Each structure stands twice: as structure tokens, then as C-alpha cells.
């Protein structure tokens, strides 16, 4: 599937509005995460959310566990300018109070929130304020008295039952997430569910671990579904800093062409032709940081991507990265070759290379 047609290939889904963030209905796939510090630390949560937004987060979820949590949630909602989702379990009153406190979206499991009358009370509050409800289903939330285990079919049936509870209450502003720690189960469950309804889906692995293992498995699972046109909002669930979840999620979308990164770094893995004096990784990281800081905002506003190559040698570098707008290729004795669209420009000292490339980019962007 070519990048330019992938968006057109997406599954058709209903549109849901969460505080100005449209999910489904052809809207761009959004990236979200969840804070991992106690909600009663309002200052720390506010600071974290602002940081997550600056990195590209479009919705942040917070766990609301009790009455005090609702008070903190209200303060945080007032202090940030990004859609906030309240995560609720068991107590329907917390869902209602979170909606009243300004939640842009709530996440519940209708099966554990209480009786039908209590679900209807939550629905009434959500409808009055235009707040969508996300149904979350995973292996730990299915009814073990009815289902033998978290098979894809059982996860889907459990999700559909929860959907029917809300539909019976006359509510349709629904987002559904079906998660599993097993990527094949997660992929199959979402594939089956997406063929049965038009509700937007939130995709991601749950309990996916940390570091490289999480990145690989989450990229495979989320990327696989997105390539099939399935997925309206995503989360890369990762143990550790939520910022890493956002960066990973955005990179998945960039790789699939569903989002345009303002600066795309193309770099080689290096080999024996790379001069030992050249620290290519350090050079690539510095160029990535400085180009994003200087040109990221204007490129993002224009919807453009600047491709910058950082290659290990001048033998293959310019040719292999001929589609890059600008680039550097390692030479000998502390020198690098500057090139543009595969054409060599000049050879300069590596210490001057980044600043020289930044000046070239200034002219390139002005042109």
C-alpha cells in the first residue's frame, strides 16, 4: 500500500468528538497516552501533560479512583489545553462526577460499572455534555463465568455486549478498545470487531513491556492493523516514561505515511568503510535535534517534510540517500561530504558540518 493511498484505504467509522479531537470518521489517527503519577499531585500531572502535548500527544488519560481524584482531575482539566480522558472502574458516580469536572472523554467498562440504571445515569451525563465513552476490553475484564478465556472471539463478544448496553441506553458516541498482551490475539480481535461495527477503535497492546521488546511488538501489532485500515487512535503502552509512548506512536504513524514528520533523518548502520573518527550516531542525533528545533514548527505548519541524510561514507552515501533533500557523508580524517539530492556539493570539516547544513536548509526552505 503506497503512503499516499493508505489514508483513503482506512476503514469507515463513525466520528466522535473528544474535546475538539475528532476520532474516526476519516480524521487523522491520533496518538494518546496516560499519566503514571498519582492524580492528587496536580502540579506534577499538569507539567507532565504539557510536556506530553509538546511531544505530540493529542489526548491524555488519567486514573480517577475516588472523590479526591475527581477534585484533582477538575484542577488539572482547568490547567491544561489538551483533551483529557477520565479512566473509571466500578463506581458509576465517579464517571458522572468526572464528566461534571470537565472530562472530554471517559473510559469505562459497562459490565463492571453497575446495574443498567446506573449505566443510564452515566449515559445521561455524557450525552448532556457531549462526552464520548470509550469501552475498554481486555483479557482481565471479560466475564470468566461466561467465557472460557481471552480468545479473539470472546474478546469481541464481550466488547459487543458492552456496546449493546450503551446502545440500549440510546448512546452511540462510543470508542472501543480491545487489547491483549498477545499480539496475534489483539490483531485478530480488532480485525473481527472492525468487520462487525462502524465504531472507531483505539488500538494497542496491553502489558507490552518496556524498551526494545515493547517497541518491536507494539509496532508490529499497531502497524499491522493500520496497514489494514483499522485504527482511529493509538497508544503504545510501555513501562516507563509516557513520553516514550508518544514518540513511538508518532514514529509508527510517520513510518506508515499517516503523519508527516517535519524532519526525517535517514542514516545508515555504518560499516568498515566508515572512518573510525566519525561518531555517526552523535552526528545524526545532533542534526535531528537542531533541525527539529529550528525548522520543525514552520515545516509542520506547511505540512512538509525535510529529509536529511547522515551517511557513513562517500562511496555509497550520496547515491543510497539520493532522495534526501540534504545530507552528509563521512570522509577521511575528520571530513564529510555535503550533498543534496544525491549531488555532491563540497567537502568540509565535520566540526563545521552541522552549521553548514543548517544554513543550506534555511535557503532550501526559503526557495
Can you offer a commentary on this structure?
By secondary structure, the chain is α/β, with parallel strands linked by helices. Helices cover 43% and strands 19% of the residues. The protein has twelve helices and 15 strands. It has helices spanning 3-6, 42-55, 67-79, 92-100, 116-129, 152-168, 183-194, 211-227, 242-256, 280-302, 317-320, 350-366, and strands at 16-18, 21-23, 30-34, 59-63, 84-87, 105-108, 133-138, 174-179, 201-203, 233-234, 263-267, 306-311, 326-330, 335-340, 343-349. The strands form three sheets. It has an eight-stranded parallel β-barrel, surrounded by six helices. It has a five-stranded mixed beta sheet with strand order 11-12-13-14-15. The chain has a two-stranded antiparallel ribbon with strand order 1-2. Helix 2 (42-55) packs across helix 3 (67-79), helix 6 (152-168) packs across helix 7 (183-194) and helix 7 (183-194) runs parallel beside helix 8 (211-227). The radius of gyration is 23 Å and the shape is elongated. The model has no long low-confidence stretch (mean pLDDT 89).
Would you summarize the structure shown here?
By secondary structure, the chain is an alpha/beta fold.
- Total helical segments: 12
Helix-and-strand structural type: alpha/beta
| Rg (CA only) | 23 Å
Which term fits the overall shape? elongated
SSE string, helix = H, strand = E? HEEEHEHEHEHEHEHEHEHEHEHEEEH
Poorly predicted spans: none
Let me know the average pLDDT.
89
Task: Calculate the terminal CA-CA distance, rounded to whole Å.
Answer: 32 Å
The portion of residues forming beta strands comes to: 15-25%
The profile of the biggest β sheet is: 8 strands, parallel, barrel
Roughly what percent helix? 40-55%
- Tell me how many strands there are: 15
- Spatial strand sequence of the major β-sheet: 3-4-5-6-7-8-9-10
Amino acid at each position: 500500500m503506497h503512503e499516499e493511498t493508505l489514508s483513503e484505504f482506512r476503514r469507515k467509522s463513525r466520528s466522535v468528538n473528544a474535546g475538539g479531537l475528532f476520532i474516526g470518521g476519516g480524521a487523522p489517527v491520533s496518538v494518546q497516552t496516560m499519566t503514571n503519577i498519582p492524580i492528587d499531585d496536580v502540579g506534577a500531572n499538569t507539567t507532565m501533560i504539557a510536556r506530553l502535548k509538546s511531544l505530540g500527544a493529542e489526548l491524555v488519560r488519567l486514573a480517577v479512583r475516588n472523590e479526591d481524584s475527581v477534585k484533582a482531575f477538575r484542577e488539572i482539566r482547568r490547567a491544561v489545553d489538551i483533551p483529557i480522558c477520565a479512566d473509571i472502574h466500578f463506581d458509576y458516580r465517579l464517571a458522572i462526577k468526572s464528566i461534571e469536572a470537565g472530562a472530554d472523554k471517559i473510559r469505562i467498562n459497562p459490565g463492571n460499572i453497575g446495574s443498567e440504571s446506573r449505566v443510564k445515569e452515566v449515559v445521561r451525563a455524557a450525552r448532556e455534555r457531549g462526552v464520548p465513552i470509550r469501552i475498554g476490553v481486555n483479557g482481565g475484564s471479560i466475564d470468566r463465568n461466561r467465557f472460557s478465556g481471552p480468545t479473539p472471539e470472546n474478546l469481541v463478544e464481550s466488547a459487543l455486549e458492552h456496546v449493546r448496553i450503551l446502545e440500549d441506553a440510546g448512546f452511540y458516541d462510543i470508542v472501543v478498545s480491545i487489547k491483549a498482551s498477545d499480539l496475534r490475539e489483539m490483531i485478530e480481535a480488532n480485525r473481527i470487531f472492525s468487520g462487525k461495527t462502524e465504531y472507531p477503535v483505539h488500538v494497542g497492546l496491553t502489558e507490552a513491556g518496556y524498551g526494545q521488546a515493547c517497541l518491536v511488538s507494539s509496532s508490529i501489532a499497531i502497524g499491522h492493523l493500520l496497514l489494514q485500515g483499522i485504527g482511529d487512535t493509538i497508544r503504545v503502552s510501555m513501562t516507563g516514561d509516557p513520553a516514550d509512548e508518544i514518540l513511538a506512536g508518532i514514529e509508527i504513524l510517520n513510518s506508515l505515511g499517516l503523519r508527516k514528520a517535519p524532519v526525517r533523518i535517514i542514516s545508515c548502520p555504518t560499516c568498515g568503510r566508515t572512518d573510525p573518527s566519525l561518531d555517526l550516531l552523535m552526528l545524526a542525533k545532533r542534526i535531528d535535534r537542531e533541525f527539529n528545533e529550528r525548522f520543525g514548527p514552520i515545516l509542520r505548519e506547511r505540512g512538509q517534510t525535510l529529509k536529511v541524510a547522515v551517511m557513513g561514507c562517500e562511496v555509497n552515501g550520496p547515491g543510497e540517500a539520493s532522495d534526501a533533500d540534504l545530507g552528509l557523508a563521512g570522509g577521511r580524517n575528520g571530513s564529510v561530504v555535503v550533498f543534496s539530492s544525491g549531488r555532491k556539493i563540497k567537502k568540509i570539516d565535520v566540526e563545521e558540518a552541522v552549521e553548514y547544513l543548517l544554513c543550506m536548509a534555511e535557503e532550501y526552505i526559503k526557495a
